[in-house]
Amino acid sequence: MRRPRRCNEMRRVFGVKKERASAPTVEEATQRINKRGDTIDEKIKKLDGELFRYREQIKKTRSGPTQEAIKARAIRILKQKKMYENQRDQLYSQTFNLEQVAFATEGLKDAQQTMSAMKAANKDLKGTMKSLKMDDIDKMQGEMMDLVDYSSEIQETLGRSYGVPDDLDEEELMGELDALEADMGLETEEGMPSYLQDDKEDETESDINLPAAPSGHAAQPQAADEYGFPTVPRTSIRT
């Protein structure tokens, strides 16, 4: 029971360690400065309205103590406006610097992500290259060439002719071919063989035995209508 009381006394004497607040990010600092800048812009806008009112009063009043009092107020308002404008310019400079830092930070993050992606791609590429060996590729190419040659041999074997003697001499075959050409030339000089002759003589005789054409007036060509059929003479139509 005495232990908690002792702890409280120690805290009272030495105090409690405060937790450090985390540092604001660049975005948070930029938003805070922009908010302060908006507040200052509202104040400057309000002072502009007052200056416009005092200027109109100066125009309407005559020279004298009243006009001088209005001018003094206007000058005081103008000094406040200049002070706020200087503060606003400082805030704009701070915002610009924070934006530059944010841009550099984002650029570094992009570079870091690019490096991570390139490292992963390099690792995958190395793994892929390990699975592709030149010896295996050359071996596969050789096997494919052997298979193609073997396929050609199979096609040639299946295309062989049956019943053709293999012991024929090419010179003897050429001699027989020359003799065949000589015989064909001799038949051409003496006349064509009977099995190559056509029936021109029969056609000539049949043409000679045709009946003679009747004598008399020459036959007049018969007229045709628009469809190509022969027309009937009007004199032959009975009314």
UniProtKB/TrEMBL annotation:
GO terms for cellular component: multivesicular body. Keywords: Coiled coil. Residues 181-239 are annotated as: Disordered. One of its GO terms (biological process) is vesicle budding from membrane. Residues 181-190 have a biased composition (Acidic residues). Belongs to the SNF7 family. This is Charged multivesicular body protein 5. It comes from Ceratodon purpureus.
